[in-house]
Amino acid sequence: MKIISLNRASFAFILGLLLHSTEVQANTIGNSLFSVRFQSSITGTVSDSRGPLPGVTVMVKGTSIITTTDFDGRYTIQASKGDILVFSFIGYSSLEKTVEADVLDIQLHEQAANLKEVVINAGYYSVKNKERTGSIARITSKDIETQPITNVLAAMQGRMAGISVIQNSGMPGGGFQVKVRGQNSLRSDGNNPLYIIDGIPLSSQSIGSSVTSTNMPVQNSPLNGVNPDDVESIEVLKDADATAIYGSRGANGVVLITTKKGRQEKTSFSANYTGGIGKVTGYVDLMDTQQYLAMRRQAYANDKITRYPASAYDVNGKWSPDRYTDWQKEILGGTASYNLLQTTLSGGSPQTQYLLSGSWNRETTVFPVDFKSSRVNVRMNFNHSSKDQKFKVSFTSGYAYQNSLLPSTDLTRDAQSLAPNAPDLYTADGLLNWDNGTFSSNPAAKFLRTITGKTYDLNTGVLFSYALTNSLKAKLNMGYTDLRQNQITVLPSTAFNPALGRGSEFSSAYYNTLSRSSWIIEPQLVWDRSFGKAQLEILVGTTFQKQDGDQLVCMGENFASNSLLENPASASIYRVMESSQSVYKYQAFFGRINFNWDGKYIINLTGRRDGSSRFGPGRQFAEFGAAGVAWLFSEESFLKGLSFLSLGKLRASYGTTGNDQIGDYQFLNTYTVSGNAYQGIKGLAPSRLYNPDYSWETNKKLEAALELGFLEDRITASLALYRNRSSNQLIGIPLPSTTGFTQLIANLDAEVQNSGVEFTLNGQIANSAYFKWSAAFNLTRAKNKLLSFPGLEGSSYANQFVIGQPLNIIKVYQYKGMDPQTGTYTFTDFNGDGNFSAADDKKVIKDLNPDFYGGLQNTLYFKGFTLDFLFQFVRQENFNEMYRFTMPGTMSNQPSALVYNWQQVGDNAAYQGYSTNNNLKSSAYTRYIQSDAVISDASYIRLKNISLSFDLPHEWTKGFSCRISLQGQNVLTFTKYKGLDPEFTSSGYLPPLRIFSSSLQLSF
Q1: How far is CA 684 from CA 669, 672, 678, 688, 690, in A?
Q2: According to the 3-state scheme, what is the secondary structure of 889-915?
Q3: Could you tell me if 799 and 778 are in contact, meaning their C-beta atoms sit under 8 angstroms apart?
Q4: Rounded to whole angstroms, how far apart are CA atoms 226 and 506?
Q5: Which secondary-structure segment (H or E) carries 299?
Q6: Which CATH class, in words, describes the domain spanning 115-259?
Q7: Tens of pLDDT, residues 548-603
Q8: How many CA atoms within 13 Å lie on the side-chain side of 776?
Q9: Least crowded by CB within 10 Å, which of 1, 543, 655, 992?
């Protein structure tokens, strides 16, 4: 063998020939495997608006060279200058960049989720949106985080079709009225939806007591303990297909709240501080001092009274006629403060993820006293799976502590009725001003009557799952809740006029102690198998639940000192007003069968057999079920050529759900402790009659819907028509007083129907790397009707309900106008007997339900700036500003419009002549505020929410992310309504506030 030796020159010559040959081949056949390119290591960082992104795929386009970013978002890849790198990550728009240097940093932008691939939480199971057969509305944390709210229910307002959410008060801790597709039950308290947090049902019963919670039209919301910043998504189940698997608990819809979970990522820490202010949205236009005093003097003149009474301090010279105070601004015009500090620690590996969050929230009121409410939340989530992914466990626990000091009485009505020339609320020394005994109506005295509340709320759940085979999975869901509340309402003697000479022996206090705990166990089996084009999924499970309640309401009087009011042992007189213990047991068997053929035809069957301890023997169990079908006609071959149609689906459902929201022990003959003692022993008194036939309400639901997606779901639309009929109504049937009972709780053969149309439209108007614009519109037109009510005319409900009319109506007198001779209001005497009675003459029916409602949301993104705003609109009638004011002429301020009143015979004025005690005018005015004259258009369009945020570029912040936000709630309202707020028409209570806030969020 002969070894050939090459010198350096020979080697260079041969290499040159090879390179020349390679270049010739490249020019001939293009890029080939024989091409020789000089590569180098390209490095960089991939991030989004919040920080580095781990797990991003980086690939050299046209090659098999690929890598992923590490936990810090860094990557290294071999590439040549001129190559194109493709960056892709789930949930983000892919990006292509040409290599021009050795360092290439990239920022990816989140991609609008494809409608078909969004996974919806349906409670016991999850389903892709395109395969959904039921009606489910959804909002996510992105919608929630733009709103300066303290109750998560407020996030739903205006954003979900078919769901009406009304805030009942602007006071901290106020409740919400939530109706999913209308009012099904004749009972106002029987229409609450089922709330479920991370699979654990939460009682919708109000906490607190009507004795101690007197400052709000509806008592505290049980969801006040949920921190909105902890919520990942809210799904609302509406139709039978979605709710029947919850049986009796899903009659009024189901609200599923899913909290944030740990994710597979490097350990990260985020902190968010939000500070804001709140003001009332507006005031009623009231009389000034000159107009008010003119009214008062004319009223006495009309009544032929020439000498003013000694108690008429506003006109008899005791109070200055030159003084003017706008009491609405004085009492309601303060600034409420909002402060929130939220911290979160999260991270995890492919097998174990964790999240720990803590928050502190504090808010005050608009009243000129230091009232406040605070809340501390701690939440933990832990997820773990085995290496083979067969065993999984998820543990979530949340604890909330709420502490509040609020006035026991809402002073909104006082602020509107107080004479504008009344004295100052306080003296120069800061004491209550009684003005030598003339100012006994000083509303500031009510500030001394306070409610102190402490609430402790624990919610814990754990979900185990194990894959027995590739097709069979076993699940076990367990949860425990514990709610405790202590409320004390004090009424000190210092709130009385000192001229009365009342000491602490006239002081009183009310104490409410509530304890409510529950546990739930739900074992389940899920079997999923494919057979060619067919896919079959079967779910079976059972529920065992128990709830224990304990409430004690007491009153103490005659204290030795006002400093001892919060100690009931210091009361010389101590009474137990209510002492109750209750146990609610619930058991159910449920199942689901889902059949999917070729991704086109879907059948979903759900059923549940419920057992409730609220019904008597033989009536405790009932069966509920539903069937839902869907046809994805866009998957048909004859439509494949329509490239613009990305989704086309027809779906329909029918089924039954039930209702047992009536309270515990209603079917039993119960006894209460008598307040009277015989020989020192208190006996028992019967309080309820036994009814063995007492059973479930039933709600039959029918729906049909069309869902469309265009241009790869950049535009989506849905149209749903529904009809729900609720029968076998649970209601109290009045009894003659001779029986010794006021009513018998029973099932009434009455039927209520809710029907309507829901329309939603979503659009991705622009979606470039630097500018994005998306919009969402929803519209609901709903009708409520009482179909039947046997014996209605002869019952005590005759003045409340009308067959063929909605439940939320009011029967009123028909206002005819002003009698120019007498200066009094006149009304239609329908039976012509010369007298006016509710039964015979209240014949005008006013529907207080909205004709339609909805919202329009827009989100715009441009180079780190995000603008999000929501317009909410409602078409409705409701009580106007004239409602609940006392008769004009009495010692109470009035709307300024009343200056145009009748003054002499022949006047054709809009309003009645003033009077202080004229019986004719008083009777006419009483009918006036019960007539259609005080009900008018309360429609409005409101800029419900607006948020502007800016994400600082990552190259500015380097090792962390920073977001700055400005937010507003109830910002602008366009309406003809002249009251305090068209959304909130509950007379005498503080409406929801206009809130502005700013926040700073840091992530490391």
Answers
A1: 12, 6, 11, 12, 16
A2: CECCCCEHHHHCECCCCCCCCCECCCC
A3: no
A4: 39
A5: helix 289-302
A6: mainly beta
A7: 999 999 999 999 999 999 998 899 999 888 888 889 999 999 999 999 999 999 99
A8: 18
A9: 1
